[in-house]
Amino acid sequence: MKLIVGLGNPGLEYAFSRHNVGFMAVDELAHRHSFSEFKEKFKGLIASGEIAGEKVYLLKPQTYMNLSGESVLAVCSFYKIKPKDVIVFHDDMDLETARVKVKNGGGSGGHNGIKSIDAHIGPEYTRVRIGVSKPQEKEKIVDWVLSRFSTDELAQLFPLFQNISDSMDVLLTKGNENFMNKIKRK
Question: 79 vs 3, 60, 72, 85, CA distance in Å?
Answer without folding.
Answer: 9, 16, 11, 11
